[in-house]
Amino acid sequence: MNRQALAVTIVASDTALNFNCFMPPPTDSTPDTQSPHISVLSLSVPVAMGYIPLGMVFGFLFVQAGAPWWLALIASVTVFAGAAQFMMVPMLAAGLPVAAIAVATLVVNLRHVFYGLSLLDKLPRQPLARWYLVFALTDETYSVLTTLPPGTSTRQMVTVALLNQGWWLLGTLLGAVIGAQAKIGLVGLDFALAALFAVLAVEQWRSADSAAPLWVALLAYAVAWALMPQQALLLAIAFSVLAGLFWPAAKVKKVAP
User: What is the residue range of 7's domain?
Assistant: First the structure.
């Protein structure tokens, strides 16, 4: 099985199933209006461990395909889509039309629809911050945002997204400028993203109130792999969503006065 796709399925299914059926139930108490004391840098460092080397791979491949180094950086600023960026390299090199690349990107990133639905109540109401978080909602950023405590400020959420994109930009720049010239071997770096998703899956599991998301994701991916190995990730997420629709909703916990 594809280890990266399996880890993505586990991370996504935690809230994409029924959004709150597996997470700790909400309380009827009034949340604290003061932002919690959290270190957004420490939350973003695990993402950096995966984004910097993978961004280097993207920058290296983009330059090797014949594009200038600065165009790789612009792609990471304006697109910032991870797997879709890697897919874009051979498609651009083959001279495919922009419409074909756009449709392929839509299919690859279709899972982000489920991510956005589960974050509707968490996204800030300021238009600029809200639209940037929608744009920067990668798998890893989604995983970090879903583990933030209630009351997290808009500035903290945007900072997490900015840091994550910054790590990707740094990796892209290093790979395009230094990696291409030095001819650095890239063997083994493709495992960095799978390892990153594994860490994020563990963090989601630890923050959940039940192990059900893990077992649902494993079962969904196993069935999807048996039916359609090439589309196992998308099919597994769809199975997880269907499971969440029929899963009993979590009961509200009452807080003693």
Answer: 1-25+209-257
6 and 125, same structural domain?
A: no
Rounded to whole angstroms, how far apart are CA atoms 229 and 250? 33
Distance between CA atoms of residues 61 and 80, nearest Å:
16
Structure token pair of residue 206: 């630890």
- Of the candidates 2, 7, 38, 33, the residue with the CA atom closest to the CA atom of residue 143: 7
Contact predicate 50/196, CB 8 Å: yes
Q: Is the pTM of this model over 0.85?
A: no
- Say if residue 102 is in the same domain as residue 149: yes
Domain count, the chain: 2
Give me the pLDDT at residue 165, please. 95
Q: Which of 103-112, 185-194, 225-234 has the lowest mean pLDDT?
A: 185-194
Average pLDDT for 131-141: 90
Same domain, 128 and 20: no
| 234 and 163 co-located in one domain | no
